[in-house]
Every structure is written in structure tokens, then in C-alpha cells.
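thought: user wants a sequence for this fold. calling inverse folding tool.
action: design(structure=
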């Protein structure tokens, strides 16, 4: 049996659709948030450059109550990302071979957002980029700035 042009077109189209659905999984970003400043994105471990958030096990104190400030930073990041696509601009690699990057959701820097919300610090040892955001959070008593806390770099040395 010979195929006319219409039938041949349909057969080829169906084969191509099947091929693309089978061999090319089109997925949005595969994302796992590790903590407030580290994510796994499409199989790569990315550390946000220029900021530092409390470690996941780090605690702060507010009104004599222990606050899981490391978990709060992570949850704020998860909430801000939502179901949005993340785009990152690579800056290099750190001593642990993580990719250093500034990542964005809808053209908003996640690093700037975290610092300005008071759940990350401008990591002055490596960058001056987010100092104004930190000043804003500190002056407005936002996030960790409304608590008694230890800087993450000091906390890591002790723990």
C-alpha cells in the first residue's frame, strides 16, 4: 500500500511527536533548595555569591523565644521562588567547588531580596554589592535584625 502525501505527512508527524516525547524530556528547572543561600539547580550545586544566610541548624532569639532563623531563611527563599523559573549568572567557583552565582526570579535578584528582607547578610569578605540592602534591613529592624543572632561565619567557626 502506498501512502498519499496527506497520510505520509500524518505518519511522519506522529513519529516525530513520539520521538520528541520519548527522548527529549522538556522539564522546567529541577530545583532543590538546600538552605538560604545554596540551591541545586539542574544537577549543579549553586552558592549565592556575595551573601551569607544563617546555617540551617542556626538559632536566633526574639522576645526570649528560640527562632529557627536558618530554616526561616530557607523557607523565605522557597516561598519567593515558588513555581517560577530561576536564571543564574555565574561568577566562578568557591573552595568547595560549588558554582558561585547571582540568581534571579522574574528579574529580581534572590540575593538582594534575602538581604533586604533581613534574612541574609552582605558577605563583605567577598563583595560590597549588597551592603545597601543590608543597611535597609538593619535600619528597619527586619528579619534577623529584629533578633539576637550570631553572624553565620562566626557560628560556623564554633559549630
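)
observation: tool returned 159 residues.
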Amino acid at each position: 500500500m502506498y501512502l498519499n502525501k496527506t497520510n505520509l505527512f500524518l505518519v511522519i508527524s506522529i513519529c516525530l511527536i513520539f520521538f520528541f516525547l520519548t527522548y527529549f524530556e522538556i522539564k522546567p528547572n529541577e530545583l532543590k533548595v538546600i538552605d538560604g543561600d545554596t540551591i541545586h539547580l539542574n544537577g549543579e550545586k549553586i552558592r549565592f555569591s556575595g551573601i551569607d544566610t544563617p546555617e540551617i541548624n542556626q538559632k536566633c532569639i526574639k522576645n526570649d523565644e528560640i527562632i529557627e532563623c536558618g530554616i526561616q531563611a530557607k523557607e523565605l527563599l522557597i516561598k519567593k521562588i515558588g513555581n517560577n523559573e530561576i536564571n543564574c549568572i555565574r561568577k566562578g567557583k568557591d573552595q568547595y567547588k560549588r558554582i558561585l552565582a547571582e540568581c534571579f526570579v522574574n528579574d529580581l535578584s534572590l540575593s538582594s531580596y534575602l538581604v533586604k528582607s533581613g534574612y541574609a547578610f552582605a558577605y563583605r569578605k567577598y563583595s560590597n554589592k549588597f551592603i545597601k540592602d543590608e543597611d535597609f534591613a538593619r535600619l528597619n529592624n527586619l528579619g534577623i535584625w529584629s533578633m539576637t543572632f550570631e553572624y553565620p561565619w562566626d557560628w560556623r567557626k564554633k559549630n
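thought: summarizing for user.
answer: Here is the designed sequence. Confidence is low (pLDDT under 50) at residues 18-27.
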